Structure formats: structure tokens, C-alpha cells
Amino acid sequence: MKKKESNKPGHAFIFAKKNYQFMFIGLGIIALGFLLMAGGGSDDPNTFNDAIYNFRRIRLAPTLVLIGFAIEVYAILLNPYKN
Predict the structure, then answer these.
(1) What range does the domain containing 70 cover?
(2) Could you read off the pLDDT tens digit of each residue along the chain, which spans 83 residues?
(3) Angle in degrees, CA 63, 68, 72, rounded to 5
């Protein structure tokens, strides 16, 4: 007697392991970019701190965030089964 095949949906992931690895790398880079953007304020509201305009907050951190988003797009579009 043949086994009857069930039509139950399987618990398969949408992406492969390689996709998820790239996604976590992208999320880490985005988080690093936002951490580098943080701070630069002054404890006294009557004084101005020029640290808010330094290279790290104006150029480096937004660039890291954009690179992280690009990695996320790549991770979504990546076909891990392609030779």
C-alpha cells in the first residue's frame, strides 16, 4: 500500500542561511552607524558644542548606515542556490 501524501504546509524558511548571515551583518553595520551618530550634545544648554559637526557624525555614520541598507538589499536579492 502506498503512503498518502499530506498537503500540510512545511515549516521552511523564506531565505537560506547565507541570506540570513548577510542580513545580520547589514543590521550590525546599521546599528554601528547609529551608535556613531549618537552623542555630541552639551550638558549646558547655554553653550554650543562643535563636536556635533565632526567627521564621525556628519560623514562616517550616515555612510555606514547607507552601506548597511545596501547589504540588506543584497541579502534579500541574493540567490544562495546559484552556482
Answers:
(1) 17-77
(2) 566 666 666 778 788 999 999 999 999 999 999 999 997 777 788 888 788 889 999 999 999 999 999 999 999 999 888 87
(3) 150
State the amino acid at position 42 in one-letter form.
S
> How many domains are contained in the chain?
1
Q: What are the cell numbers at 4?
A: 498518502
The whole model's pTM is what?
0.78
For residue 32, tell me if it sits in a domain.
Answer: yes
Q: Which residues lie below 8 Å from residue 34, measured CB to CB, with a gap of 6+?
A: 61, 65
- Whether 28 is covered by a domain: the verdict is yes
